[in-house]
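User: Structure please.
Assistant: Input sequence and predicted structure:
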Amino acid sequence: MVAARGVRGIAVIATLVLGTLTVSLAGVALWFHSRLVASLPRLEGTVALEGLDAPVRVERDALGRATIRARSFEDASRALGYVHAQERFFQMDLARRFAAGELAALLGERALATDRRLRPHRFREVARRVLERASVEERRAVEAYAEAARRGLADLPVPPPEYLLLRATPEPWQPEDCVLVALAMYVQLQDEDGRAERALGTMHEVFPPPLFDFLAPRATSWDTPVDGGMEALPPVPGAEVFDLRTAPASPSPSSAARPMELETAAAAGSNNWAVAGDLTEHGGALLANDMHLGLAVPNPWYYARLVWEGPEGPRWVAGVTLPGVPGVIAGSNGAIAWGFTNSYGDWSDLVLVEEMPGRPDAYLTPEGTRPYAWYEETLQVRDGEPRTVRYAWTLWGPLVSRDHRGRGLALRWVAHEPEATNFRLIRLATARTVEEALAIAPECGAPAQNLVVADRFGRVGWTILGRIPRRFGFEGRLPASWADGTRGWRGWVPPDAYPRILLAGTARLWTANNRVVSGAAAALIGDGGWSLGARARQIRDRLFAREHFDEKAFLEIQLDDAARFLERWRQLLLETLDEEALAGRPDRRRMRELVERRWEGRAEVGAVAYRLVREFRDAVVQRVLEPFLARCRAVDPEFRPRLPRVEGPVWALVQERPAHLLSPAHGSWRALLLEAADEVLRSVPGEDAARIADWTWGSRNRIEVRHPLSGALPGFLRGWLDMPALALPGDLHMPRVQTPYEGASMRMVVAPGREEHGIFHMPCGQSGHPLSPHYRDWHRAWAAGEPTPFLPGPPARTLRLEPPAQSRSTAR
């Protein structure tokens, strides 16, 4: 009885405790929810904003897209800074901290490695120098944007939700932070540590020149430049050049490079194309652009339409903006439409530093001996002890690493030069013709891009937007010493020397991170890892497959997941799985039946045969290349190659099958191919070989779009910040680029002057606030490829921004 009473008493106490905890937790949850609600952006009411010359209206449609109506372009740009800070300040903060190497101060120990990697670039100093050089017009625009961004943050009664989770206070936005956001894009789009060039340098030293040229080709049969110029393909080297059967074997490290790692850099890039007026019913040109980046929450871009009064009447521009910088990055203004793909030109060089014997603190330059400039800085760490980073700079840039011989490698990179970053891209918003846009491009300071422009008069054009370094004495593909003054950079290529294409009539124009032009023009740009060209080839073929286009036809090309690139690999797999190979192997027979009879011909979610062929190709590429890459890793443990055109040498080898370039680990080329097929079969889950029919492409190509902080949250809370995981169609070497972590950060199809018929897609949503109805409402249409309008719909909410003398702030 006493025991029973004790148990009942404990139960009562437990119930009371649990009830108290539940009430406490509920109270905490209600408090936290109230703070989140208070951090939502202002969407209605009136706000006094310093610096405005006249009232501004910020209209948001049913998808949260912002239309900013102002008296002047300057007022519209100022209002954009306010809106960005209200909706996307944490994203802006991460971008500036990333570039400056200051993430750990906010995120703690886990961000230290990134800070150590970025701080030696001294981007805060670069940003200061950029602003010192800025024109009066640019500086005024940046300062107005920054001032409005500070006010936008201050007008939130509670900081954005991420700062509640981190228990941190956001720092106000400064003009130099706009430059840091632009510099962060350099890091995302270019080779910020010289890794690719270092790997090529190692390969060049390990292999004879003919074998190096073959394994790292300048061109392949997939090349699809707009001007049609094709380069000679390197032949398969003979046994007298290199023989794997007699060359000393190398240890086989466990860190063999996967094909995805070798190819992804340029393969998962962007697409843009245009057709001239004779190919559309309305006579104006038509443009498509889908920029591919790493997918995250929120999406990198923020949609905005700016409307203002120009000297000749109303003007406007609509498209994607980058939170943290003023202006529209890509879009349309009724007269022109423009878009970008990363150029993958050669925008940096590794300089072999010749140190003085006995004096490791000094090195040779064309002007004689010079000591390293050493910098020591403190890295602040949230909830941790500060750390010190010490790094050296040379005449040419930071000392980024040492090669396998111990020689210093300094990085000469356009991003370090204040002349290479500015805000002149804003001028595209007011350009009226293709010629005017092409003239603006060379003056713009940004990571060098393939700019494709279309105008309402039916013309299309291409050029490089961004600064091009003028090299002398070398081509820039491999590390080299600049100590004797016979090699280096001598300023910038002048605007009138930029390669340009201007077309009309029935012209078609395309870029997909591939080589766009040939000969001297291509040499001027340099090869910084151009893509294979398979995407460009598929786009070109689709453009020449018909004589008339509209917006829907362009969207179909953007969503094209046809497996043209893998067709020949499918045939190779079928040839490999002949009757001799199938004898006594029901698993191989099942594989052949699926590939032969159920070939989908597309990278669609339910595709089984596509995945089998794709995995087979990956397994072959790895086996063919591994004996070569292992030799490089043996001399350089940090060897991390990027070979975007690896398809060229691998396909040549599996076609010609030279015995001297086959690893001794394989008895024959046929044996290598069968081993690759068997590896795919072993990857199928479960013991029953029939399970292969359920092994779909969608189960591998599962897209996870995550918030930067979600990994630190319990699993049940991650769904609050992350987008739902989705199996999506698409792959690397096709127009619909899609991998688990990269894909179209936007899609745009628009004819200038017909924007009301245009199409626009964006993953996630317009807002960066998880309680906003616009946090994820774009995502479904983006994933499904369903058309959504390029222009905003009718206003659903309107916020008025007024000069302080005209207004008092009112409740939202």
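The first helix runs from residue 2 to 38.
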